[in-house]
Amino acid sequence: MNDYSAFLRNKMRIATATGFEVRESDLNPRLAPHCRRIVQWALRGGQRAIFANFGLHKTSIQIELMRKIRNTDGGLCLIVLPLGVKQEFFDEAEERFAGDCAVRLKFIRSTAEIGNELDGRVEGNPLIYLTNYESVREGKIDVSRFVAASLDEAAVLRGYGTKTFQTFLPLFEKVKYKFVATATPSPNRLKELIHYSGFLGVMDTGQALTRFFQRNSEKAGDLTLFPHKEEEFWLWVHSWAIFLQKPSDLGFSDEGYQLPPMKVNWHEVKLDPRSAGYDRDGQGLLIHNAALGVTQASLAKRESLDARIEKMCALIAEDPEAHRILWHDLEDERRAIEAAVPGVASIYGSQSIEVNEANALGFKHGRIRDLATKPEMSGAGCNFQKHCHWEIFVGIGFKFHDFIQAVHRIVRFGQVHECRIDIIYSEAEREVRRVMERKWRDHDEMMERMAGIVRKYGLDKLPVADLLKRSVGLERRVETGDSFKIANNDCVEEARLTADNSVGLLVTSVPFSNHYEYTESYNDFGHTDDNDHFWSQMDYLTPELLRIIQPGRLACVHVKDRVLFGAVTGEGVPTISPFHAEAIFHYLKHGFQYCGMITITTDVVSENNQTYRLTYSEMMKDASKMGVGCPEYVLLFRKPQTDRSKGYADERIVHQPPQVIAADGSHVPWTDGDRRAHVPGSGYTLARWQLDAHSFWPSSGNRLLTTDEMVRMGPKVVSDLFKQLQDSAQVYDFDEHVRLGEELAARDNLSKTYMTLAPRSKHPAVWTDIVRMRTLNGEQAQRNLEKHVCPFQIDIVDRLIDRYSNPGDVVYDPFGGLMTVPYRAILKGRRGQASELSDKYFRDGLRYCRAAEAKIAVPDMFDVLDAVAEAAE
Q1: Of 45, 74, 78, 70, nearest in space to 175 by CA
Q2: Which of 329, 656, 740, 817 has the smallest number of CB atoms closer than 10 Å to its CB?
Q3: Is residue 176 part of a domain?
Q4: What is the pLDDT of residues 154-185, one digit of tens each?
Q5: Which residue range forms the structural domain that includes residue 48?
Q6: Greatest Cα-to-Cα distance within the chain, rounded to the nearest angstrom
Q7: Which residues, other chains included, contact 556 with Cβ-Cβ below 8 Å and sequence gap of 6+?
Q8: DSSP secondary-structure letter at 786?
Q9: CA distance from start to end of the chain
Q10: What pLDDT score does 451 carry?
């Protein structure tokens, strides 16, 4: 199809504009120029994020956005905010919105309070509703009533698994205009930025994660930004978010917007050495271990409370009349502060909202000298810089977002004094300090990077040309040998260059939709939005594969279903995408005949370590949410033969017949219909056919070992012996299987990293004896080269080649990877052919093919282990 190039170019996505244009002259003239500029941009986009530095008037920007939408669209508008920030909006509306731009704000806690205000106006002015996050999350506000919504201090959306994120995503899905505003969009991990895009409707969160972040296949949730996608990621973010450090980033004057100097002082206090504890042998410790975990850090906080309060008092004594914020995390810390600091006002959760607000306003306006509060309660939105330029953190924790927000309650534009930040921590919390400082540096670097993009491109010129730097197409490179031909090329383009009916067998492991991206090219099948998008690209490849395969021959397609995490789908429970079923219908649609599938079991314990989907603890809580492990499949498809009156391929796959025993005892060739006994091991025997077609494996006569015998051997040996046991003809006993596992676990001999007693199948349609690590990645790891993220197991390839091809046939793989298929085809007397998009994989695969052709045994992991064992003997 000639539109394949257009399909690839359509993969290049930036956020679309769904709003409306507004002239700057129609905006509130009391807003700062940079604010009016951002309002224009956000209204045009319709769904945008405003990540502006502390003191750059995000409050005014949000009010103006709602005012213009209310006047233009006519629907109700809502701003969702933390309770502690409510008064800031009323103050801002009174100070900056007057005359023709006047607005009225109304705080509500339920839908019933919306009332019947005429046309959404009060005294002729647009009415904008405010509410707190808890009211929305608890279902008290009917969000569907609103045409526009803005989330202030929107960092509450940072986590997938949080109740706020899971609740807000579906609630606000139909809201026409959506905005988020915060000064700290992603202080911890870059991937948190995509949570905002998911809420805004820019891109599905799961899709964005897959597009930009690489997965650690051995650990669930471990995602890092692809190095080759770093620039594209930031430019994509720029298409829907504004990161503003100062007005000059948008070309305006910075007059009045200079951040004050800040001096950070770290104070380490000593702990009583008698509280250091004991090691595992019962020996007393002389020093405290660094508290790396939340639980250990909490214990260290309590042990150091008296020392930290004493240090706080010493610091206060340096300037007793100054105004200070005394940040703390624990209620015991608050009570200790109240006992040590006369006249201190406190804000805490069990206090009434009215008293909380009175204390916050009293401190803001200078009527209160010392304020004790928690970062999670007063760290967001409150502006305390007018009368205060000193903060004391009576302790530290792991929540950097709360910490950095708390710092910037006084370090803001408009602050005229140098800010002093004193941070008190114990010697057991040195690691907590180290992590906090690293996160602080990462935050500053991220904000500066995005500000640099704003300075470079502005808000009007989206950098489409830079997004196009991701390649489309590549210069074809072909390498050949006596028994192979491999190409560094797009698989669709390469298949188009392959002759009709020239391939005897196709063996491939297709990309599992958008689960991985293998290259930075848009040609990559992994660079797709979802399953439908992936199969749309496969629609260009599969007809070519049908054309090049010989009539009657097979395409063997390795696939695996995909785990869909409940935090991403909103289902609340992990579900399975039936990718193998979609593959079946895809190939049927293009004219292949479906002949069945081979099941390859996987280690459920290892899978759980990767996905946390089948945890024992969750099973105990509710068995209804636990499914089963995901096997892999090899789907068998056949290109219809030319002569439909017969079932034979145009060029048959013929196995060598066995020898039979003649009457005189000699061995003679078997002929069709011959009923004489086959000579074992000679050609393709009747016994082999029965196993290939439908049968069970014969018994070895082994018996189960006792638990005592197994414990002495260790879990690895037990695992190997159990595999051998299940290859025997002994009748499987599930209860005995469970009992054995329980006894091993009771003696701490049941592995938690792999399945010690994995179930085994004797049926030839279910392959449980595939060596999971026997891939060309073994050699890659030894040579310190890049590993292929989804290597194809050698065992699978060997069986398929033996079963479904003749010597001399072309065995083809459109997704060559490390060239496992042509490599094994060469060693088995076939001709290998493949294409691969990645230049790195292509170069390594070429080496393997040349080595195979030269009859050099390329060692895999098991070869190396055997050699080491022999050397040790």
Answers
A1: 78
A2: 656
A3: yes
A4: 777 765 456 677 788 889 999 999 999 988 77
A5: 11-250
A6: 117
A7: 505, 506, 507, 508, 634, 635, 636, 637, 800, 804
A8: P
A9: 61
A10: 79
